[in-house]
Design goal:
Shape: elongated
CATH class of the largest domain: Alpha Beta
Distance between the termini: 73 Å
Radius of gyration: 32 Å
Number of helices: 21
Largest sheet: 5 strands, parallel
Strand order of the largest sheet: 2-3-4-1-5
CATH architecture of the largest domain: 3-Layer(aba) Sandwich
Order of helices and strands: HHHEHEHEHHEHHEHEHHEEHHHHHHHHH
Helix content: 40-55%
Structural class: alpha/beta
Length: 445
Amino acid sequence: MFSDGMAPLAERMRPRSLEEIAGQDHLLGPGKALAESVRAGKPHSMILWGAPGTGKTTLARLVADRAEAVFLTLSAVTSGVKEIRAAMERAVAERQAGRRTILFVDEVHRFNKAQQDAFLPYVEDGTVVFIGATTENPSFELNKALLSRARVYVLRPLDDAALRRLLERALTDAERGLGERRLTLDDDALDLLLRAADGDARRGLTALEIAADLADDVDDAGGARITVAAVTEAVAGGVRRFDKGGEEFYDQISALHKSLRGSDPDAALYWLARMLDGGCDPLYVGRRMIRMASEDVGNADPRSLQLALAAVDAYERLGSPEGELALAHAAVYLASVPKSDAVYRAFGQAMHDVKRYGSLPVPMHLRNAPTGLMKELGYGKGYRHAHNEPEGYAAGVDYLPDELTGTRYYEPTDRGLEQRIRERFQRLRGGDSSRGNPNRQEGGV
């Protein structure tokens, strides 16, 4: 690693000890198992899972330094079978020479399962201590065999206090940081940097370095002041953390769904804004809200499905940013109306019975009888036309196969329109017991 001053500020300020790593006290604080093993120079295989800029690579390097081990690195983005084989051959040679090897694999989730398997024998026999870094959920992306041989540590995004210490250290460190330039940072400018960094140390330091080049001179001795205007220019175009298709993506859509289900329009608007701000396809969010309208609102307010469909149609017509207001309109409506998952549950139970019972025959009285032969065989015999019955309801008639007689899938709630549906069913079904269907056999499930 070069130290000639040409490296970016984020690289120059890379921590040189565990104490300099910011924001990971839950792993590296006093008495923590990881910290103690690193300080003792007794490394073990591990998976470092965290967002960009949380210190995964730095921690891996410090583990190797404290263990006085050979540090080999692979990037799953640029490495293939050839590079993996070469690294393993090097590790074997180092072991034969009496030296320990730590193999650091960046973006390990990008290796396929076969490539991950290639490391297992060397991890198993101790030829390498394996350290993988990933921004994705290891339980989804990594082999179970590899996970069973490595401990997973979750690195957290840096909070404002940790980022503040990091940026202030960069401003005052004359050896590696910007200390020789005698820079001052306005409080408002610091707050803006913290928001723009969004928990990412690398992003924060990069923005600080750019803003420093835009600082206003304040005296003849070379001092300069970093203003809000300088930081605004430095962070222009930045977005919050969001991985289209990764862990962050699914966490946020889950938060939006649960906010709508929980009748919290404020949280629904926040998570919708987060996803749109992060670059999520607005039509994806719209399609999910169409699903939510049926799954979580259902017949408690059937208009919710119409509104969700209309919001997607409006976005397709208007595009961004105008069409995003229609999505917000739908989100607030879905969060505000009564909720029912009765249809969702009823459909799931019906699908379960279809798979359980197979192709049950249609009852004879429900079958169509377009020919004389079919009528002679009893097709349609005894069918009662509901429109000819009081209130349009043929009391006592069963419409399910014999094996499912009496089964109830849909149980309306007492919320919204379903309360009226429930009351109607209770009134109509009250006469079922007094007038049965002579064409049905007794029994059922």
